[in-house]
Predict the structure.
Amino acid sequence: MDGQGIVNTIMTLFLLLIFAYISQELQIWKMVSEIEAYLSIFRTARDHALGVTSNTFKKLLPKSNSSRKIEYEKIKNIDERIQELVDLTIIEPVNLDPYGIVKKIKHIILVTEKTVENEIKIILPNIKKSEIKNLTNLIDATRILNFIYKFLDHNYRIARKFKSLWLLMQIYALLPFITQEVKALENAIEAFNKGLPVGDSVGPLVASKLIKKYSGFENIDTPVEDTVITRVNIDNREIYIVKAQGPGGTTGRLDDAIEWLFNNIGKKFSMIITVDAALKFEGEKSGTITQGFGVAIGGTGVEKFNIEEIASKHNIPLYAILIKMSEIEALSILTKDLYEATEKALNIIERVIRERSVEHDKIILVGVGNTIGIYP
Amino acid sequence: MSLDEKLFEIKRKWIPVYFILLIGLIILAIHFILMAYFTNNQDYASFSLLTLVAAGYIGYNLSKFLNTIISKYTTVKLLTCKKCGYSNEDKNVDKEDYVMKEDGICPKCGGKMIIEGIYRIEEKTKPSLLELFGLKKKIRNRFK
Ligand SMILES: [Zn+2]
């Protein structure tokens, strides 16, 4: 190899290195610009949610003839209070020794719920209970949006600071999932603000339809807070229908209601049926109904745990009817497909009751989900 | 502005750029093909092939933009008569409305109507070329 050849080889290698470097820089630049665009979208989503929440509060503010200055002070005060509620942090109990942790989680959740509701009552003293529930939902959704934005922004800043390609890549890879969630929450803000049923409300909607069809409106009782229980007769079986109390947006205390039934009606139930929304896979059609075994309740897992406990203790079969939908649909105003699916679910429940029980059996049916916009 | 709309706005900014690039690449490709034909030079043939591939790629991306489907939703309440079972969809959904609320009188028999369900109906529309190029400001209204 002569001198010219070596120089040429080195030049080629050098060029290759430069190209590799440039292509990596380009990739980083592309990721950074896209993450920044999404971050700004998430921030507007958060700000929009905050705006909607504070506007809703202000609209519900009682009219008074006090001077403009006092009114201004009031409104400023409300914005501060809302910001406080949005910034609330819920600290999970320590799970080093998990025995009895469910009770602790339940306690913390109940305290949070109560406190937020009381805070809202202090800001707006003369509003209906259902409105308090809807405002709580609105604040919850805003809180999650706020958290998502802050969390992503934090990670992005760290990644930029340390010029870490790997951190950027991780954020970049998560973007589709986060966008999905933000979209869902943004739609939820609209639904909660208007107090209309969302996809997650299919469970309570099915329960409500059953109550109407078998005229159970007369027997309605609320022994447990935020939860209604009623008794209907389907094909000579006693059906106890449990659902959250509407039309305010709440998921109720279904486990407490079932415990109440066991303590007051008797221990001899032939089955517990739960109806709930479930996440579909991308390829599945919305509104598909599948049956399952077990307790179909999402969320923290507290209610699921408690119902499983009581059912396994008394050896009661657990059946589940699941209505499939996407994450976005679950938090957006109910679609027609899902509404039609509730009719189908009704037929399936009637069939399950007829086929898996005999006359004079006692059955518990639970409509799981947020009952926003659905009575009773 | 919904999130979908914002994402669409961000993507839309690139459409004119893509379009100009596509036209430029096609002109270049034609030029190379003609040169290859008249000069019989092999290099021109390979250049034309490269530019055609690039034009194809950009054209594919552009066609994806042009096929963007925008969904429009209308929320309705399904009212049914308790007496005769007559039902109709009503677009005037109020903030106070909820499922199983008595609402209005049946136009057929005069019985009480009940809200059987509240849901939204999806309507899919394709924005026209003018809207995509930002020459017509109709898109914003479509989302409302
Ligand atoms: Zn009628």
User: Anything to note?
Assistant: Chain A touches chain B through 30 residues (CB under 8 Å). The mean pLDDT of chain A is 91. Chain A has ten helices and seven strands.
